[in-house]
Amino acid sequence: QFAGNGPGRTGQPSFLDVRKNAWGPRLGFAYEVIPSLVVRGGGAIFYLPEREGGNADRAEQGFQGNVSVTSPDSGYTQAFNLSTGLPASPKVPNLDPGLNIFGTVPFAARYAGFAPKMYDWNFTIEKGLGRNTVIRASYQGTAGVSLLANREILNQVDPKYLSLGNLLFLPVGSDAAKAAGIVKPWPGFPDSRSVAQALRPFPQYTGFDHDVDADTTGHSTYHAVSVSAEHRYTNGLWFSTSYTFSKLISNVQGENPALGTFIANGDTSTQNGYDRKADKSISDQDVPQHLVLAYAYELPVGKGKHFLAHSNPVVQTLVSGWMISGVHNYQVGYPLRVNSSLNIGLFSGQERANIVAGQPLKNPNYHGDPNAAPYINPAAFARPAPFTFGNSGSNLPGLRTPPLQEDDVTLGKTFPLFREGQRLEFKASAFNIGNRVQFGGVTNNVDSTTFGYISSQFNRPREIQLSLRVVF
Length: 472
Hints:
This protein is mainly beta. Helix content is 3%, strand content 34%. The chain contains three helices and 22 strands. Strands 1, 2, 4, 5, 7, 8, 9, 10, 11, 18, 19 and 22 form a twelve-stranded antiparallel sheet that branches. β7 and β8 (237-250) form a beta hairpin. The longest helix is centred in the last third of the chain and has 7 residues, at 313-319. The relative contact order is 0.10.
């Protein structure tokens, strides 16, 4: 179909519907129940920003034409003479509905013009302890609706044809296909094309260009309860700590997994386009338990402090102005999935492995050495039988990467200089001071010879940084 006015066109200015009811209310409250005890809550609907799909030229087929003319003998003879005119180029627009048969064509979903939305709600109880310390207990909920995704399989063969088995791979003109009663989609369909191609919903195409902004089938739910405490900077001490217990469920991580290390990192495609409910699982980014402790403490030694406040100037210069600070981060690992390289002949997405009942998902023989044993238990997974889908989930909450335990510590000292307001600051920072390793890169293809083994380090090794800073 071709949009626009004129012969061979739909008469529509666009294939997309435009949302006209994007109402985004916000509501919040705060109430002091008793002195130093405050209750807060709120909710809102937010609409995610959209970007221009496919760089604005993804649907140019039929409306652009070009011609390429080359020298017949690598430049010794001119390609053409200007005196005879420019070579003829294709006439546009080309409104042939059979354009690009057995190729990839742009796909514009009617609902692609609808901005995804997020429902957000929260409730917090906050209690002050004295003048400088606050403790909080919070609940946070978020739901994503019509999120941008890249997991629709619009041209997958219906799984009911799995019973054909190897016949799916044979040419549609073969004797075996004719004996099975396979009918060509149209009389001129090439005999050399496979039976599976003939059975696709759109047998005239091999692919659709709708990777960006045309799939709004994503959704997510997030629930979290957190407890935190914060002490404002007094008497040389500041600290903040929080513990979060949460669960994130989704059927997609982002609209384009190839965009980088943050957006949709590690996402996979749909296994069965006719069963999208099976995509819903624990999210790649689910971290059910997360503890963070941050602090800064000025040591009570030297001028104006509790210890050695009246010592001689040399001692005060050495012992005054020392501060220690740190951030300690501890969390469980991210969920894993196990895939297979099996091709079941339906032009479907990523095949998943089968789970073997009664086996632990994590290898009980793994004791921290990634070279000694696989991290995933090989006995817990198997390659699916030919022409069947794997029965494991999109992600497995019972199988996670190793946990993260990271400690960053800084020791610093301030030296007063010759004039008031001038000072020299020295800091020695150690990131991941314990040099703890969080392994990653687990080979999750059940058909791989290295299945289950860890191949890389996920976090950074210990780094020590020294710095001097002059303030004047």
